[in-house]
Design goal:
With 170 residues, the protein is of the alpha+beta class. The protein is built from 6 helices and 7 strands; from the N terminus they run E-H-H-H-H-E-E-E-H-E-H-E-E. The chain has a domain of 116 residues: Aminopeptidase (3-Layer(aba) Sandwich).
Length: 170
């Protein structure tokens, strides 16, 4: 059985980060409209070693337990120390999708959120037509707490957004 781990960004991740972040098909999920420059991502990686509560965000690289090859990214962002909550987003390498990596990564992230960041709540916003992401968050124990209708404008038209929440105590 393959096991996975989360690790911090490394300078060697620049190539894959450029590829994934600058893939226009990923911009819709991240609500981005333009590519990142190499310089911008180099600076981002260099600054990524700061503490989660200092920056309010953390980007994790999902990889196999004994290998460093990036299989995906998990972002924790928008952290609110007073309320002990943060948002989460996941990107799995296109060629690795459909193998349960998002669920495995989410379990690892939930353990970190509970045991180290001591977060009370993780939340996620998922397009209602993204069946794999809806399944991932549901299977990870997130509760669907609502829907924002016609919330995000995309080239394909307006999209509804499902709201998910997870708490380690529930």
């Amino acid at each position: 059985m393959v096991t996975y781990r989360l690790r911090a960004l490394e300078p060697g991740d620049l190539g894959v980060l450029l590829s994934w972040e600058n893939n226009p098909s990923h911009w819709i999920a991240g609500q981005r409209t333009s590519p990142f420059s190499k310089d911008t991502l180099e600076k981002y990686i260099a600054a990524s070693g700061r503490d989660f509560w200092e920056t309010g965000q953390m980007r994790w690289v999902l990889c196999e337990a004994y290998a460093d090859r990036p299989l995906g990214l998990i972002d924790v962002f928008g952290a609110k120390r007073l309320h002990l909550r943060a948002e989460v987003g996941i990107l799995i390498a296109p060629e690795m999708r459909g193998q349960g990596l998002a669920r495995a990564g989410m379990r690892l992230l939930q353990a970190w959120a509970r045991d180290y960041a001591m977060l009370e709540t993780l939340s996620a916003q998922v397009y209602t037509d993204n069946a794999p992401a809806l399944a991932t968050f549901t299977q990870a124990g997130f509760t669907r707490s609502g829907t924002w209708q016609r919330w995000v404008k995309t080239p394909q038209g307006w999209k509804d957004v499902a709201l998910f929440q997870w708490s380690p105590d529930r």
